[in-house]
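Notes from hallway chat w/ T.B., transcribed later so I don't forget. T.B. wanted the structure written out for a chain they're using in a teaching module, and asked if we could keep both sequence and structure tokens in one place. Agreed to drop them here.
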Amino acid sequence: MINNLKASEKVSDLHCLVKKVDKKTTVKGDFYYDLELSDSSGVIAGKIWNNAMNNCNFEVGKIIEVSGLTQEYKGKLSLILNSCQMVNSEEIADFRANVPTLVFDIETIGKDFEELDGEEQDYLLNNLERTTEDKEEAKKKTAIYSIFGKVCAIGGMDVNAKKGFALILGKGELVPENKDFAYYVFDNEKDLLIKFWEIAGKYQLFATFNGTGFDFPYLTIRSGINRVKIPFEMKKYGHDHVDLMTKLNQNNRGYKLEMICKAFGVKNPKAEGVHGGDVGKLFKAEEYNKIADYVSRDAVATSELYAIWKEFLSGEI
């Protein structure tokens, strides 16, 4: 199995699915192949250098039996193939990697405008919200800025296990409306963030809706403010992160989640009457269960959208 491989290990008779193939050229002008290989345990990069070309027979979407040697470079393991042959007796579905994937969404609350000092008020109105003509409306937008707001809820769902969680600032015992979710209540943001990163550290891939523009930067800044250690770097939210707003945009404009859900036949998470703009009022009213239910519905809807994207739109085998 791919996930059991170690550096500098001889490999023989390993069966893998060929997910991608790229033909590349070295600086000396020699060409080689970069392969992405998978089995049910994980994914690994494969390389076929010029001296092994005649011993290799492969094709995207086919199962191959490989022999070679693993190599570690900059902390990443790859497989240098000496030979490979196609196998016709295996089912492709058995070789698709179940990469640990977490879908999540955050909700935030902000300080009252009157709580900001003069410098902060000026920065909000005349810099961050300078294009907002209605200044009274601009005063209500502290929650969307991580220097004036904080994370009050995070809803997440394990794509493979179909189990979810909600981390909530609040008090008391909360009852999940979805039997597949567990709720955790915290009395401060720091502990909530510590718990989230503890959970997130177990995953290799993340899926969000506008996580590039909002969720990850907000979590990063709030973690810094709270002196919470982030266990990994997101590589500027690259291949470890699928932002569905970016994947499903048009003319460089992202659709709202509820409209994409409607178009794709996914239940609108806001159909129960709660919207992101209501979270601040619900928090002040100590309606923590409603916030938890709402952020859980967002996680479910995003997970369903991700499943559609992955199966039909991602180009993956």
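Follow-up for T.B.: The chain is about 25% helix and 30% strand. Might be a good example for the class.
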